[in-house]
Design goal:
Helices cover 30% and strands 29% of the residues. By secondary structure, it is α+β, with helices and mostly antiparallel strands. The chain has three domains: 312 residues, Orthogonal Bundle (ADP-ribosylglycohydrolase fold), CATH 1.10.4080.10; 158 residues, Galactose-binding domain-like (Jelly Rolls), CATH 2.60.120.260; 172 residues, Exo-inulinase, domain 1 (Jelly Rolls). Strands 12, 15, 19, 20, 22, 27, 28, 29 and 31 form a nine-stranded mixed beta sheet that branches. It has a seven-stranded antiparallel beta sheet with strand order 18-21-30-23-24-25-26, covered by helices on one side. Strands 3, 6, 8, 9, 10 and 13 form a six-stranded antiparallel beta sheet that branches. β8 and β9 form a beta hairpin. α14 packs parallel to α16, α15 runs antiparallel to α16 and α16 packs parallel to α18. Its cofactor is Mg(2+). It holds the Pfam family ADP_ribosyl_GH. It comes from Paenibacillus rhizosphaerae.
Length: 713
């Protein structure tokens, strides 16, 4: 099969596939590692989600795909991408030793082993090779669980999917571990254009060696299915006997779990719900296996094949745990656009006009164009009535642009109360009832930025209604409001709000408040479209007024911050950072920020290296400036290692407070100390032009950061 054109419904199929992935992770999450017998005794026949979550926390199965795919943005989307570049992507986006993966130990966890290899300079593909790590480590399950996106970007082209997948999987896996990734990616690519699951599996078999253990197992399970098509439970006994955990080394070998995937695909006969339920009931690495079959059958069936009961609890929300806090709160339509953009780029085709601005990122942030999408919007109100029902749903009834909008319904409202629809722009531990893979966040929105939307009061609503944009500072539990507008029924109204400059704020919600000025138990129906926000922030934080966020005894985070490595806490009214050698780094702000000024009060405590950062794009891409050595002020560029760009003599002392500032404008960086300009440097060598702010030290140093501010340059 070759890919001469894109499927007409490509974007919707990507959405369905990624929904299937996320549904699968959630479905299997809380019984991961259970045996078939435990699941059967506890649940019997499974037909729906087993656990209810406030919001489902981060998981390695979704962390890996969304962040490894960023190699195509950071390097090249072509087949010229190398395993070494994908390995560098690991180092850039994964926190060191916490979150993201299972950090089970070198030689125990394959991902931990590969990460440590990469960090020590053993580049991919050697980092994941049998030669380096041995077959037991290299053939664990991770080669296939992080691989789905490579099939989603190569629709109808299994061999191209396998080519990308081989490079990605080889960062950490080899042998059957690598072949499993190639097989799954090829099946996903095939599912865009095939009609039956048998055809999909046969296409997957074409991209792996005919005589490898994975291929032998797949053909064996297919032969059993041909002779015993009635009972999947009988088939599992066959799998357990011939390909069970007891036959393979390590904690989670790929072959037993791949066997469960093949079994569930065959006996599920392509049906989404039946397939993921069978896969979950088999046990072993449930979240990983159910996620892979969820992607395959999600693409195969499309959105219409995924029952709303699977979609609704997700709320279109995906939690992650990278070093980029604003990327740890994704909505699934954003993921879809990010993935699909590479699909068209690889095919060297222009997206259809209706998707072009969305995939290019020039449309409003929240567009509601994907069927059923809500972009994780939620509702609340001041109304004390307990019998009010509020819903958000995707609608083709109205649209300001495109074909769809968000329909917001309150079934009974009263005059004088506020009724709100909003996007959550920051999450705290109380927003979750689990803590898997250590998520941490930086707000999506900041003081000084702008929020706007288009809204329309339904034509049949007769009560007078006013509306205004708002943001909520969750530190102060206070809403800040934009101008109030009286709505006219059946008329689109533009709302906008320039958020004022604020100190010590944490913007946790952004949305629209509706206030009926009359009515009692009347319905309220509003259509919302083209919600957007952005701009340069203007804000300041005093760490003496921030808080530690407690998830569990070994997972505590400084509010609004993520960190790469080191010990970061709040102490004596300051952010305190330290580590024993390598750079300790802590970040906040947005990856999207471009030109700005970062100013911080820095107090060296011990050691000789005390820095602040700008244009942070991850753990191996940033600028930093500050004290380095006994009498130096240095500007660094981090390119998988710090390199001096400029240095001046500068006397400094321990326990003294210094105001350190970096101004980033275009490719020019200006470093100011206590109001005196000390360094000006133009970076003409692949400059970093956007990114977060941060705090850093190295070589056993410890630093206090009392406060900081971000402003326009």
């Amino acid at each position: 099969m070759t890919n001469h054109s894109m499927p007409e419904n490509y974007v919707e199929k990507v959405y369905a596939g990624w929904l299937g992935k996320v549904i699968g992770v959630r479905h299997g999450g809380n019984i991961e590692g259970w045996t078939y017998e435990q699941i059967e005794r506890t649940y019997g026949e499974i037909s729906t989600y087993l656990h209810q979550f406030i919001n489902f926390a981060a998981d390695d199965d979704t962390n890996g795909p969304m962040f490894f795919l960023r190699a195509l943005e950071d390097y090249t989307h072509t087949t010229g991408i190398t395993p070494e570049q994908i390995g560098l992507t690991w180092l850039n986006y994964a926190p060191d030793g916490h979150g993201f993966y299972w950090w089970g130990g070198y030689g125990v966890s394959t991902e931990h082993t590969a990460y440590m290899n990469l960090k020590s300079g053993i580049t991919a593909p050697r980092s994941g090779s049998i030669e380096q790590n041995g077959a037991a480590v290299a053939e664990q399950i991770g080669g296939q669980i992080f691989i789905d996106v490579w099939g989603l970007i190569t629709p109808g082209n299994p061999r191209l999917a396998a080519e990308y997948a081989e490079k990605a999987a080889s960062v950490s896996h080899d042998g059957n571990g690598k072949y499993g990734g190639m097989f799954i990616a090829a099946c996903i690519a095939s599912a865009f254009v095939r009609k039956t699951i048998g055809e999909v599996i046969r296409d997957g078999l074409q991209v792996i060696p005919e005589f490898c253990e994975l291929s032998r197992m797949i053909r064996h399970v297919m032969e059993f299915h041909q002779l015993h098509q009635g009972s999947w439970r009988e088939a599992f006994e066959f799998v357990k006997e011939n390909y069970g955990y007891h036959l393979y080394p390590g904690n989670c070998h790929i072959i037993p779990n791949s066997a469960v995937i093949i079994l569930s695909l065959l006996y599920g006969e392509g049906d989404f719900s039946r397939t993921i339920n069978i896969c979950n009931m088999c046990g072993w690495d449930t979240d990983c296996n159910v996620a892979n079959v969820g992607t395959i059958t999600g693409v195969l069936n499309g959105l219409s094949g995924i029952d709303e009961s699977w979609r609704q609890p997700l709320h279109d929300f995906l939690c992650c745990s990278s070093v980029i806090g604003t990327l740890n709160m994704m909505d699934l339509p954003w993921c879809t656009a990010y993935i699909a953009r590479f699909g068209y780029a690889i095919a060297e085709l222009e997206p259809p006009e209706r998707w072009k601005s969305i995939l290019e990122g020039t449309s409003a942030r929240f567009h509601f164009e994907l069927p059923g999408s809500t972009h994780a919007f939620r509702t609340d109100s001041d109304d004390p009535s307990r019998n009010i029902t509020a819903t958000v749903g995707n609608s083709t009834e109205e649209a300001y642009s495109g074909e769809r909008s968000l329909k917001v319904t309150f079934d009974r409202v009263k005059g004088g109360y506020g009724y709100r629809v909003f996007h959550q722009t920051y999450y705290r531990p109380e927003d979750f009832n689990d803590s898997r893979y250590d998520p941490a966040f930086s707000p999506l929105l900041y003081p000084g930025q702008r929020v706007e939307s288009q809204i329309k009061l339904a034509s049949y609503i007769s009560i007078p209604v006013k509306a205004r944009m708002f943001v909520k500072d969750v530190n102060e539990d206070r809403r800040h409001y934009g101008p109030t507008v009286e709505l006219e029924p059946d008329t689109w109204t533009h709302l906008a709000f320039d958020i004022p400059k604020l100190g010590n704020a944490c913007i946790g919600q952004a949305g629209i408040e509706f206030v009926p000025s009359a009515g009692r138990n009347s319905p309220l129906v509003i259509y919302v479209d083209d919600v957007d926000y952005g701009g340069t922030p203007e804000y300041s934080i005093d760490f003496g007024r921030e808080r530690m966020e407690y998830w569990n005894p070994v997972h505590m985070e400084v509010s609004q911050c993520t960190y790469l490595r080191g010990y970061w806490t709040l102490e004596n009214g300051a952010l305190s950072g330290s580590y024993n050698g390598e750079p300790a780094e802590c970040y906040t702000g947005s990856l999207e920020w471009r030109d700005y000024v970062m100013k911080a009060v820095v107090q060296p405590k011990t050691g000789l290296h005390h820095l602040i950062q700008v244009r942070v794009q991850g753990g191996i891409h940033s600028y930093a400036a500050g004290f380095s050595g006994e009498s130096k002020l240095v500007l660094y560029k981090n390119e998988n290692g710090y390199r001096e760009l400029a240095v001046v003599e500068c006397e400094w002392e321990f326990d003294c407070e210094y105001e350190l500032e970096i101004r980033a404008a275009g490719n020019e960086l200006t470093v100011t100390l206590d109001g005196i300009k000390r360094i000006k440097y133009a970076d003409d060598d692949h400059p970093y032009l956007h990114g977060q702010i941060g705090f850093a030290n190295m070589k056993g140093s410890r630093t206090y950061y009392k406060r900081f501010a971000v402003s326009q340059p």
